[in-house]
Amino acid sequence: MTHLFGTWHSGFFSQGGLLHLILPAISLASIMLPLFIRLIRAEMMEVLQSDYVRYARAKGLQPGRINFLHALKNTMLPVITVGGVQIGTMVAYTILTETVFQWPGVGLMFLEAITRSDIPLIVAYLMVVGLIFVITNTIVDLIYGLVNPTVKLTGKKA
């Protein structure tokens, strides 16, 4: 049974379709999750040894406030950077995920284009992936400004 989403008919908008998204989502997330866990842990251990965290502890602030408000905020900049780079890696892994779960998607189309030597389609796919990288890096830069207001987005001197 297909459902209508605008002018697009798809079986993914039904309960069964959403259930079929669980395993592919878990497989894509499991590729990136260990990297982020190790990165956050390493950064938090480094930040928790810094002077301002020791000062916050000496002031008597609650440990939860120190960990989440002060330390985690400064830990997020490297995590955001790695996350932006890993979005491109996840696009590459979608080809593998589509193959394993037998989904006819963009990844399969790209593999068939390579098999057929369909140069215009290969170039179009690579341009879309490049556009995803550019948009992701732009969003990462904008998020930097939200997480740490001292990061300057322009080259102007204050």
Largest sheet: 2 strands, antiparallel
- The dominant shape is elongated
Rg value:
21 Å
Give the termini separation: 59 Å
Our count of helices gives 6
Helix and strand pattern: EEHHHHHH
How are the strands of the largest sheet arranged?
1-2
Structural class: mainly alpha
Average of per-residue pLDDT values: 84
What's the number of structural domains?
1
Could you name the ranges where pLDDT drops below 50 across 5 or more consecutive residues?
Answer: none
Features:
6 helices, mainly alpha, 75% helix, 158 residues, two-stranded antiparallel sheet, single chain
Question: What would you say this structure looks like, in words?
Answer:
The protein has 158 residues and is mostly helical. The chain has one domain (14-147). It has helices at 15-19, 22-47, 51-59, 63-100, 106-116, 119-147; strands spanning 3-5, 8-10. The chain has a two-stranded antiparallel sheet with strand order 1-2. Helix 4 (63-100) crosses helix 5 (106-116), helix 4 (63-100) packs antiparallel against helix 6 (119-147) and helix 5 (106-116) runs antiparallel to helix 6. The longest helix is centred in the middle third of the chain and has 38 residues, at 63-100. The mean pLDDT is 84.
